[in-house]
Amino acid sequence: MDTMNSSIPWNLIMPLIVLQLILAVVGLLSLYKAEATRGPKWLWVIIILCGNIPGSVVYFVFGRKDAS
Amino acid sequence: MRQFLLFFRKEMMEMRRSFKWLWVPLVFLMLGIIQPVVTRFMPQILESSGNLPKGMTITIEPPSGSEVMAQTLGQYNSVGLMILVLSIMTLISGERQSGVSQMIFAKPVSYVSYAAAKWASMLSLVTASFVLGYAGAWYYTMQMIGNVETGAAVKAGLLYLLWLWFTGSLTLLMSSLLNPAAGIAFVSIGAAILLSMASGWLPRFTAYSPGSLPQISVRWLQASDAPAGAFGAAILCLMCMIFFFMIAAYQVKIRKSNV
Topology in the membrane (chain A) (predicted)? Predict the structure, then answer.
């Protein structure tokens, strides 16, 4: 495991983790501001936090009720 | 022209408000980065997954930079295409169903500029997302894998962008024809997949089909020679887009509301 850790260029992996975090935070912010969603909000929190990229995408596409 | 700019600004604002300008480029960028990273660490990933019998060794020939770029385009052709379609599928049908378009067309406004604004906003979102993702993939491939041939990568990227434009136009056309979002997504994704598969099965009949664009761009990266039919496919793709646009503008005119 140690040899693997030392060979990983963290400066190149980090952006990926940061991007993932930004995506999740934006999803949660939008969820917090949304007045109504399809399905309960706590479910979407779990989906966004545990679903990585697909989770956030699914929320943005199906979870949001557009203002109408 | 003034009406077009007005509609265009409204579309852009709506896309910002629904966070599309944030998550679509972000997801495209991550899609682009993941492929080179996974390729680079494939040996370690296989090793740590630990299902191999002891003593067994796998030697994976390290792929070239252009090869990894071609694989990235393959990623875009499955996941990226789906995200593109899902993000823009209700652009026209949503306003028709919520009654917004009925309100808009209560005044004498031009249908063509309304449809053109939809198209322009869709094209700018697609272009920004893909350019960002492709640039990210390129940078990571250069850093982690190896050199990428500049000319071939630029040309392949442009051709692939054209294919994404085509799929986006197809989605907007479906959005003007159909109401249910699931139907729009299903027909658009299905048609795009069928078109690109048909060009693999029947290369003779689909030499200039827009569906051959992803294959052409992948081949361009792998062999870095100009495949035959690239120019013809690009021209036909642009003509299809104009055709789709005209049908959609007409649909907007005759179907202002859901009733």
Answer: Multi-pass membrane protein
